[in-house]
Amino acid sequence: MDISQFASQPSDPTWEEPRYEFLNVIHFPRDDNGDLEDRHRTISDRAKALNNISQEFVRLIGLNAPPSQVECFIKKCEVTSLNSSPAVQPNVFAWLNDTDALRWASENNNEETVRLLLKRGFSVRPWAVLFAAAKLKETKNTTIIELLLNSGWDINKPLGETRPPLLCMVLEVPELVHWCLERGADASLSSPLGLTIIEVAASCASLDTLKLLLERVGSSRQGDAVARASLAHTNDSQPDRVEVVRFLLDQGYPIDECYQTRDPDPDHNCAEMFFGTQNALHFAIWSGKEDMVRLLLERGTDKTRPTRSVMKTDWKTLSPVELARKFGHLNLVPLLEDE
């Protein structure tokens, strides 16, 4: 199909709204009657042609083709604009932009392709920042993330409904935390559904980093930071979580707050069922972490508060003592029994 035949602006009757994700990402859309929807049944020939162009574009960037090949592909999609200068055909560009091409270039850590796409006007979206941040932790090279920030991405913009801003992605790397703070990152922020940067830090950041962040946070000390630190302690991935919990409690964070998944779709929230009602003490009990149990008891945790989850109680309601017995941690039973 001759790309010059595509619509030049959204108001044109033949303009095809970009639907790359809908057509190519695995999901199970349903129609108004709740039946599985045939995603291709209403696709015009124009939309099919635009989708084919988009698929080839993603394949090229996903395979980490040289920037020269990417540029050549883009040039093939150009038409002569009103001012007689070449530009990517508007409806084609809308579809190419819908592929979130910067995400794939960022995942490949391809600085030159990122530069090319930004120069061409491709939008910076959360997935591009997420993948750039993942590479940033590996390489400590801030070039690509700086390109995204300098192209308009706000360092304090959330990365998703349950994802706080960029700072939360680099909390394990102190030098990157400092870099973000120097760039204006706000440690007091959260995701739209309430997951705070401090709560994330409680599970993965060093004690020194956590102290640095809390120096920049206001007086509010709410949330499930203690539970998240205790959960991280269950698999020994973060060996200093006992000290982190001690510090959080010293700062006034609630000791008995249950872990919150903050899933945006509670009707399909498997994590909510998986975790159920578990707080810091419950995590410490089933994992047999006596050091954490003792600290929490010393600091006044409610040792009678029951727990219930698919993950650890088969959806039965168990007291802390019963939980310890279920997992065979008999050394904890005397600590949890009523005196």
Q: What class do helices, strands and sheet pairing give?
A: mainly alpha
Q: Tell me, what's the shape?
A: elongated
Can you tell me the residue ranges where pLDDT is under 50 for at least 5 consecutive residues?
Answer: none
Sheet with the most strands?
A: 2 strands, antiparallel
Q: Span from first to last CA?
A: 81 Å
Secondary-structure element order, as H and E? HHHEEHHHHHHHHHHHHHHHH
- Tell me, rounded to a whole number, the average pLDDT: 90
What is the number of beta strands?
Answer: 2
Q: Considering DSSP H and I runs of 4 or more, what fraction of the residues is helical?
A: 40-55%
Number of helices: 19
Percentage beta strand: under 5%
Strands of the widest sheet, in order across it, are 1-2
Output the radius of gyration.
Answer: 25 Å
